[in-house]
TrEMBL record:
<keyword id="KW-0472">Membrane</keyword>
<feature type="transmembrane region" description="Helical">
    <location>
        <begin position="79"/>
        <end position="98"/>
    </location>
</feature>
<feature type="transmembrane region" description="Helical">
    <location>
        <begin position="16"/>
        <end position="38"/>
    </location>
</feature>
<feature type="transmembrane region" description="Helical">
    <location>
        <begin position="162"/>
        <end position="183"/>
    </location>
</feature>
<protein>
    <submittedName>
        <fullName>DUF1275 domain-containing protein</fullName>
    </submittedName>
</protein>
<feature type="transmembrane region" description="Helical">
    <location>
        <begin position="45"/>
        <end position="67"/>
    </location>
</feature>
<keyword id="KW-1133">Transmembrane helix</keyword>
<feature type="transmembrane region" description="Helical">
    <location>
        <begin position="189"/>
        <end position="209"/>
    </location>
</feature>
<keyword id="KW-0812">Transmembrane</keyword>
<dbReference type="InterPro" id="IPR010699">
    <property type="entry name" value="DUF1275"/>
</dbReference>
<dbReference type="Pfam" id="PF06912">
    <property type="entry name" value="DUF1275"/>
</dbReference>
Amino acid sequence: MLVLTFGTGVLDAATYLGLHGVFTANMTGNVIFIGLGLAGFETQVLLRAGLALAGFMAGAVVVGRAARGRTVHQHADVFSSWTLVVVSLVITAMAVLLSAGDLSARGLDAVTAVISAAMGAQAVAARRVGVPDVPTVVVTSAIVGLSADHRWSGRTHDRAVLLRRAGAVASMLVGAMVGALLLRMHIGAGVGTSALLLLVVGLHGLVAARRARAAG
């Protein structure tokens, strides 16, 4: 899950800086942008933020509906793993489009919507097999838990839980740094890196599922 969180940081940094100020995974930011746009501020990103939010929700709805009735066995979920593989291929295709040349404004809008839809699908897949305290799209809850349960707050908590929360925050932070640095090469580099990470996690999940079935 930390790999997915890192990949989200890479992708959101690349798309925020390279797609005119919208996120493709962090929908909290896009909701704020939409609110600002409706109030007359940041109107230039209103449409694209709306497309990103709509795409994310559409991807989540499709995968959420397809996942109904499918059970998860010991964090080895074939459906979720295949979903991550498909998502990685979709994002790879978008990386190729972005790397091929300058896209029109409508082309960038379409790419934004497609990547966001893919990340909505990824969020549902990760949620099915997620590790507690390790979110893959936003880390606000991890920061709250890390702060509230730290010894400085007068409470004690399982050290492993605190480490997972800290790992989630650090993964997102470092991922964003890497995504911003890759943008110096090209936006396609950051998007493609995120796709590669998704593919690795998806394939790892398929291997784990096969081993779980073989073990009985």
